[in-house]
Design brief:
The chain is mainly β and 267 residues long. The chain is built from no helices and 21 strands. The strands form five sheets. Strands 4, 6, 7, 10, 11 and 12 form a six-stranded mixed sheet that branches. Strands 16, 17, 19, 20 and 21 form a five-stranded antiparallel sheet that branches. A four-stranded antiparallel sheet has the order 3-5-9-8, with no helix packed on it.
Length: 267
């Protein structure tokens, strides 16, 4: 994977191949005293990305720096990584296209915001998200001065990056006589970041639910497992007018989703 810049050098973006550089690159590193706290990405929610469109999320964080270090002399931003060390990660993912924007709240404290872009593989200048990268990531941050001195900070939280899921439902026949069989079909699919399409999510438990007309509450009738193409099929007995839907609880790589209810008139 080609890794996009987390912060910008004076002359432009700096590729994070420098992640292999130790936190204190050289004696007298002026940003070595910079620390990060209160890093919140996407308001604490998981990041969900579809098959092809870029998703941009906001991040907020606090920077504390020595009083002797001017806030204008360095840049900063959050990033995601996997592995035991942020300076030697097994994978490093997505920093923002631009550094964070900070406002001083005191002589040593900055309140910062940043934008982080997530792009499925090969949609732009960078190959960012592959299917294998869905799931949990560690949150870190980096500071960079004009002389390319770095300060990395790890273990600032965790964040799930997930493949957008979709769920359909169709109940038939419509109308149906009371006591007769209703067949409910559907499909659970999720974004394939590698080919920019949606593919069936196989072997997943999905709840078949019913909401009686006039009620606001769905009741689970049974659990159905998706087949090798992500398809669903179940039968139930028609008892009253109402709405059938499928509901998926989600996984670490794929968010929860519920289909819109399909109304069946029972006569």
């Amino acid at each position: 994977m080609r890794i996009r810049a987390t912060v910008a050098a004076v002359s432009g973006a700096l590729a994070l191949s420098a992640l292999a550089v130790p936190a204190a690159q050289a004696a007298g590193n002026p940003v070595s005293g910079v620390t990060f706290s209160n890093v919140v990405i996407n308001s604490g929610k998981s990041i969900v990305v579809g098959a092809s469109a870029q998703v941009t999320v906001s991040a907020t964080y606090t920077v504390t720096h020595p009083a002797s270090l001017s806030a204008s002399s360095f840049m900063s931003g959050p990033l995601l990584y996997r592995g035991t060390s942020i300076t030697e990660p097994t994978e490093a993912l997505i920093g923002g296209d631009d550094p964070g924007t900070c406002t001083a709240s005191s002589s040593t404290v900055l309140k910062c915001t940043a934008k982080i872009q997530f792009r499925p593989a090969a949609t732009g200048d960078y190959d960012d998200l592959a299917n294998s990268q869905a799931g949990a990531w560690k949150v870190g941050a980096v500071a960079l001065d004009n002389s390319d001195h770095f300060k990395w900070q790890s273990d600032l939280g965790t964040k799930n990056v997930q493949r957008l899921s979709k769920l359909t439902v169709n109940a038939a026949p419509e109308p149906v006589k009371k006591g007769k069989t209703v067949t409910v079909t559907g499909a659970l699919t999720r974004a394939n970041w590698d080919n920019h399409k949606y593919q069936g999510y196989t072997g997943q438990p999905v709840k078949l639910q019913f909401r009686k007309a006039g009620s606001s509450t769905y009741t689970t009738l049974k659990t159905v497992t998706t087949d090798s193409a992500g398809n669903l099929k179940a039968t139930t007995t028609a008892t009253a007018d109402g709405y059938f839907r499928y509901s998926f609880a989600g996984t670490s790589t794929t968010p929860a989703v519920s289909a819109g209810g399909d109304y069946v008139d029972v006569q």
